Amino acid sequence: MTEQENKKIGKIRTRFAPSPTGSLHIGGLRTAAYALALAKHSNGDFILRIEDTDQKRLIKGATEKLQETLKTFGLFWDEYYVQSERSKKGVYQKEAERLVRDGHAFYCQCTPKNAKKQGYSEILRDTCRDKNLNSGAIKLKIPDNEKVSYTDFVLEKEINWDTSLVSDTTLLKSDGFPTYHLAVVVDDHYMNISHVLRGHDWLPSTPIHLLVYKFLGFERPIIGHLTDILDPDGGKLSKRKGSVSCEAMIKEGYLPEAILNFVILLGWAPKDNREIYTLNEFIEVFDSKGFQKSNPVFNREKLDWFNGYYIRQKNDEELLELLKPFIPKGANIDKVKAIIPYTKDRIKKLTEFPTLAGFVFSTSKEVEPEIVSDPNQYVTHISNATQSLEKVNNWNLASVNEALSGTIQEHSFKTGGFYMDLRTTISGTTITPPINESIEIIGREETLTRLKKGLEKAKK
RNA sequence: GGCGCUAUCGUCUAAUGGUUAGGACGGCACCCUUUCAAGGUGCAAACCCGGGUUCGACUCCCGGUAGCGUCACCA
C-alpha cells in the first residue's frame, strides 16, 4: 500500500547535499548523521553532494571546510559529486529541455520576481507559459486541479496538495544552472538515491519535485522531512546564544563526539531512551521510527552535560592532546599533565581548563594571592602553613598532607577555613582542584614564594 | 494572508485505549567532602483547550488555539 512497501527492496543510498555557503552548522550535522545512519544501518551508501548551483552565494573554501568538518565528526562518504561540474556537462539542461519538448515546461524571459516584495500576491501562473519562447529560463508548467501526494517516512503520513496552489517554478536559470528543484530530482534519480532526508523547510516545495519526477518519468525515492532545531527564544536557531557552527563549537571547547551525541538526540529517540551513543552505536540501533515530528529546542545545558561526560571518559593522555590548543604558550607541560587527573571531572568545556588550573602551571608573577577571610586569622593560617611546609624536605603529596594536617591539629584550626586561605593564596581564587595535590605539583619553592607573597599582601 | 507540518514536566523525550504517565538535562534537598566538581540518594515538575468515539482516552476523530515552516532565475 505505501510507497515504502511498493518500492523494490534495494540497497539503501542516502545523501547529504549541503550548499557551500558557509560553515557546517549543527542542523546540517544532524541531517548528515541521520542520513549516514539510515544508510549504514543496512550497509548502504552515503553520498556527499555539493549543491553549488547558485554562483552568487558561493564562498571560497567552504566546500573544503565542509568536508573537513564532516571528517572530524567521523562522517565519511562513499561517493562525492559536485553539481556545478555536472551542470557544465549539461546534465540538468538536457532534462529541462526534455520537459519543454514534452510540454511540461516553457521558456520564460520575465525578470526574477520576489514574492516577499510583492506581499505574496497570487501570481500562480506565469504569463510566458503560452508564448512558445525558445530562450531564457525554463519553468515548470504546473497543471491545474491536480492532486499530488506522497508518504513522508519521517512524519509517517500521507501529505497532499492541490496543484492549483503551486506556482510555475523556475527549473533552469537563464545562466544555464539548475535551481534546486531540478537539480535535486535529476541527481537523486541518477545517483540512485533510495531515501531523501532533508530539512522541514523543504516540505512546501515537495509538490514541485513530485511533479518533476512524474514528468521526467523517474521513479521517486522515499522522502522524509526532518524537524527544525529551534532557538531557546523561539524561531530558527540563531547565533545569538552562542555558536551554532560546528567549527566554532569545537573552538569553544566542545568535543565532536559530545556535539554529535547531543545533536542526534534532538529529534530522534530510541524506545529505551538510551542517551549515550558513539556514531557506530547510533548506526547500530538507528530506526527511522525514532524520528520526532515536532521541532526540538537547542538546549545548551544538555550539550554541556554531554561534553563533561565525554571529557570524563578520556584518559589523561587523550585529554592532554585535546587540551593542547587551549593551553597558553610557555606553560609547563609536565605540570599540565600532572594536574589533568584532578580537573577531569571539574570542567564541562576544554576552554575551562586554563581558568580552573592555570595557577598550577603559571609562575608566581602571574598569580595574585587573594585574601577572603579575616586578616588576622589569615596571617595565622598562612604563617603556620609556611612554617610546616618549609620543614618538608621530601616534597610529595603524602608529606604535604602530613605537614598540613599536623598544623591543623596542633593549632586546632578549622579545616575548611585553613584550606580556603591556603587555596586563595596559592591560586588567587576560591575554586580550584584539590589544593594539596595542586601544591605538590606546583613544587616546594614556588609554593613557599606564593605563601610569602600572600603574607606580605596581608600585612599591607 | 494562502498552503503545509506539529502539540507529554522549563528542555530533550518514553508510552502505541486501561501505568501511581517512565527516563535524561536543568532545579532543589541530603550524603560524601579542604573549595568546586564528580558520584550516590531523594523531592518538585507535564498529557494545549473544547467537543465527540469508547465501558474506558495522553493515545483515535473533528474543531479551536498556539508554535514552526514556506510562498525567489537561494538552497
From TrEMBL:
Motif ('HIGH' region) on chain: 18-28
Membrane-spanning parts: none
Record's catalysed reaction(s): tRNA(Glu) + L-glutamate + ATP = L-glutamyl-tRNA(Glu) + AMP + diphosphate
The record's free-text note on cofactor binding: Binds 1 zinc ion per subunit.
Keywords: Aminoacyl-tRNA synthetase, ATP-binding, Cytoplasm, Ligase, Metal-binding, Nucleotide-binding, Protein biosynthesis, Zinc
Glutamyl/glutaminyl-tRNA synthetase class Ib catalytic domain span: 11-305
Protein name: Glutamate--tRNA ligase
Classification lineage: Bacteria, Candidatus Woeseibacteriota
Gene name per UniProt: gltX
